Amino acid sequence: MSDTTPYIPPKVWTWDAENGGEWAKINRPIAGPTHEATLPRGKHPLQLYSMGTPNGQKITIALEELLAAGEPGAEYDAHLIRISQGDQFSSGFVAVNPNSKIPALFDTTTGSRVFESGAILLYLAEKFGRFLPKDPAARTEALNWLFWLQGSAPYLGGGFGHFYAYAPEKFEYPINRFTMEVKRQMDVLDRELAEHRYLGGDDYTIADIATWPWYGNLVLGQAYGAAEFLDAPSYTHLNRWAKEIEQRPAVQRGRRVNRTWGEPSEQLHERHDASDFELKTQDKVGADGAG
């Protein structure tokens, strides 16, 4: 018999702001701003408001890839949104993304706000004509995998990652439930990458850019400390793909932007110029520097 008292849901749920572990203070059941604050604006056409989480890395990697491909119009300012401090609930951020989630993009050349990481990737690919095939069949296949990731990543982050790494207590049922789904997703990717160099074909696309920060980091042991638990090395083709993409210079740059943890040399809190990678990482500006 179990000594734990089973949870019986109430007839009407009420919010307990203290329940939920270290991220409880940034989650709430209502939308809208909590405070007034204007977002900063830099000098470049694209203004990114983000943090170096997997969803944030998608966009900074894409922007660095576009610059590496010779697109000067992809120059950007990356402003740090400290989600643990509630920056995403400012009036300025809510105006760009009413869902109060990073990343959010503002294009000063069109006046367009773009939110949701998959929408931002698609917007950038169409704006610059890069990293999305022109052929209709190949384009559809790339979009299949982009939307697959957008639907799958919440199981990895909000499900598995939360209960395995962040929840205030470990519970067998949710960890088993989400581990089962994450391993199934890893197998989906492994089987696809056994047949193709990249997701959906032989060309590197926004589908790979979207997926690598989640599943690439996971199998390379850079997410949740869970590679051994998930037997990540057994996914041979997924590992091959993850390691290949990790070696791309634009990926190495993009993953450092808006990052506030890890080795100081891997943290570039804000990016406003290409030279910032050499001059303004935290090992250069100091642990208390603004970046």
Descriptive overview:
The chain is α+β, with helices and mostly antiparallel strands and 291 residues long. 44% of the residues lie in helices and 6% in strands. The chain contains 10 helices and 4 strands; from the N terminus they run E-H-E-H-E-E-H-H-H-H-H-H-H-H. It has helices at residues 54-68, 91-96, 117-128, 136-166, 172-195, 206-219, 236-246, 249-254, 276-279, 282-285, and strands at residues 46-50, 76-80, 104-107, 112-115. It has a 4-stranded mixed sheet, with helices on one face. Strand 1, helix 1 (54-68) and strand 2 form a beta-alpha-beta unit. Helix 1 (54-68) runs parallel beside helix 3. The N and C termini lie far apart (54 Å). 35% of the residues are buried.
* Total of helices: 10
Summing up helix and strand content along with how strands pair, one would put the structural category as alpha+beta
Helix-strand sequence: EHEHEEHHHHHHHH
Give the distance, in angstroms, between the N- and C-terminal Cα atoms: 54 Å
Quick recap of the structure?
With 291 residues, this protein is of the alpha+beta class. Helix content is 44%, strand content 6%.
Write the layout of secondary structure elements.
Elements: E1 46-50, H1 54-68, E2 76-80, H2 91-96, E3 104-107, E4 112-115, H3 117-128, H4 136-166, H5 172-195, H6 206-219, H7 236-246, H8 249-254, H9 276-279, H10 282-285
Parallel strand pairs: 1-2
Antiparallel strand pairs: 1-3, 3-4
Helix pairs in contact: 1-3, 1-6, 4-5, 4-6, 5-7, 6-7
Could you list some keywords that capture this structure?
291 residues, alpha+beta, 4-stranded mixed sheet, 4 strands, 6% strand, globular
